[in-house]
Amino acid sequence: MGNDALSILDKRTQTTYEIPINKGTIRAMDLRQIKTGPDDFGLMTYDPAFMNTASCQSAITFIDGDKGILRYRGYPIDQLAEKCTFLEVAYLVLFGELPTESQLKEWVNGITYHTMLHETTKHFLEGFRYDAHPMGMLVSTVAALSTVYPEARNVHDPQNRKLQIMRLIGKMPTIAAYTYRHSLGYPYIYPDNDLSYAENFMNMLWKMVEPKYQANPVLARALDILFILHADHEQNCSANAMRAVGSSFADPYLSTAAAAAALSGPLHGGANEEVLKMLDVIGSKDKVPAYIEKVKAGQFKLMGFGHRVYKNYDPRAKIIKWAATNVFEVTGKNPKLEIALELERIALEDEYFVKRKLYPNVDFYSGIIYQAMGFKPEIFTVLFAIPRTAGWLAQWQELLMDPEQKIARPRQIYIGYGERDFVPIEQRGVAAAVTA
Ligand SMILES: CC(C)(COP(=O)(O)OP(=O)(O)OC[C@H]1O[C@@H](n2cnc3c(N)ncnc32)[C@H](O)[C@@H]1OP(=O)(O)O)[C@@H](O)C(=O)NCCC(=O)NCCS
User: Fold this and answer.
1) b or e along 331-360 (b: 16 or more beta carbons within 10 Å of the residue's beta carbon)?
2) Element containing residue 6 per DSSP (H, E)
3) CB count in 10 Å sphere of residue 33
4) 60 CB under 6 A from ligand 1?
């Protein structure tokens, strides 16, 4: 073996092993040969929360967390945000290349054709309580689409996959808008296929009695940019859920519902809603220093700060901050911006945050823009799920086409009891109740 190898001396047996290193990685399965005897299972790695484990090889998204770089299929995120539409980026993320003019036309037509929901799905949505959280409605409705398109379970047919991908990307804004209108008690608005992806979403959200909805072009472009920034983010919690569920060959609707459920948590896509709540709790700029002290004392986390991968300014946060300027010119400034800017200013100078490399992430400013545009915080994570559907589906396709992938099934280190005899109920004492 050449120099690209790791020598491991097992002191238990005084045996040396040569483990190949490829792309800066050793294969965990290569450790299995390291045994103390024939009955030994072999050495495993222990990595709760995947802190240092690559679960796949991927050609979709590149992140350099230390340098603050994000690229889709090699293209820097700032160039895509400036020059593309979201549907162009979705095509890139899903199929690997930017579309030609004719490919884009066909793609946009395909997505537009699939924006309608089956009436039974609409009735399904009507069954939710008036105060149901939009994310709960979205997750359930996406899962319910699996019953409308049973052929989707044929996940090995590329043509069938493409059809379901177009349906999901087309229908996501429709479901999202319906969840929003439901929470307000407004009637549902059908898609308008004359409009762009973002404009049509705005139409389904905000059209009232006017015959034709006219989207403000600045706000529509800002929304499209936000969609581009959220399209994919490599192996995050929800992408991992998508891949884990997809690895059992569940259909794409059920896998996407699982990914959206993962997104809903406050440590993932739910963070922007939490940022707004936090800014409400802080209340005014002068209360920021006292709030920061409480964060440093460990009472709570500064929402919208910190990232598992970025140990530098999140490049998406920079673009969002820039997009916010355009939005605020139309909507007027969101008063929370002042508090957010002060939080950022103090945190970026404070040793606690500097030492831990905690910078604003994508969720820090997105909620403030969304609120200025007229969205309620409960819908923020839904706004994240719409574009991320493209990323989830790209991850799912890549998984299905990767010959190395199998059903995702981690190992564990069992730390429970050894074998013990059954205890009849009348003989069970306090100890059993305590460990239950
Ligand atoms: C995103 C997040 C879950 C990443 O977590 P992680 O990679 O597991 O990082 P850790 O929790 O190990 O954090 C490392 C240290 O920074 C601290 N820290 C991390 N995020 C923090 C935050 N937002 N506010 C205050 N302290 C934070 C941790 O307490 C820990 O401190 P310690 O070393 O003294 O124990 C975490 O930063 C977080 O909860 N952020 C707030 C939620 C958020 O904005 N999520 C959106 C992500 S896009």
Assistant:
1) beebebbebbebbbeebeebeebeeeebbb
2) strand 5-10
3) 11
4) no
Which residue puts its alpha carbon closest to atom 26 of ligand 1?
Answer: 301
Q: How far is the CA of 169 from the centre of ligand 1 (A)?
A: 31
Q: Is 230 in the pocket of ligand 1 (CB under 6 A)?
A: no
Q: How far apart are CA 204 and CA 177, in angstroms?
A: 6
- Kindly give the distance from the C-alpha atom of residue 307 to the centroid of ligand 1, in angstroms, as a whole number: 6
When the pLDDT of each residue in the chain is averaged and rounded to a whole number, the result is: 94
Residue nearest to atom 31 of ligand 1 (CA): 356
Residue 433 has pLDDT above 70, yes or no: no
Location of structure tokens 């994000």:
70
Tokens 């959280």 map to which residue? 133
Structure tokens at 272: 């922007």
Tell me the backbone φ, ψ of residue 115, rounded to 5 degrees: -80, -20
Does the beta carbon of 358 lie inside 6 Å of ligand 1?
A: yes
User: What is the rounded distance in angstroms from the CA atom of residue 261 to the CA atom of residue 148?
Assistant: 20
Specify the 3-state DSSP secondary structure of 25: strand
Q: Is 263 in the pocket of ligand 1 (CB under 6 A)?
A: no
Give residue 431's Cα distance to chain centre.
42
Place of tokens 């606690």: 352
The answer to whether residue 45 scores a pLDDT higher than 90 is yes
SS3 254: helix
Q: What is the mean pLDDT of residues 190-209?
A: 96
Q: Are 369 and 225 in contact (CB under 8 A)?
A: no
- What secondary structure letter does DSSP report for 248? T
For residue 280, pLDDT beyond 60 = yes
Half-sphere exposure of 299 (CA within 13 A, CB side): 8
Residue 277: C-alpha distances to residues 201, 266, 377 (Å): 25, 12, 8
Which residues are known to be catalytic? 268, 307, 363
Amino acid 1: pLDDT? 63
pLDDT tens per residue across span 93-145: 999 999 999 999 999 999 999 999 999 999 999 999 999 999 999 999 999 99
What pLDDT, in 10s, does the model give residues 151-165?
999 999 999 999 999
Closest CA to 183 of 131, 227, 260, 140: 131
Q: Which atom of ligand 1 is nearest to the CA of 356?
A: 16
- Given ligand 1 and candidates 66, 301, 343, which is best to mutate, with the most ligand atoms within 8 Å of its CB? 301
* Token pair listed for 436: 């239950």
**In what helix (H) or strand (E) does residue 201 lie, and over which residues does it extend?**
helix 197-206
Q: Is 96 helix (H, G, I), strand (E, B) or coil?
A: coil
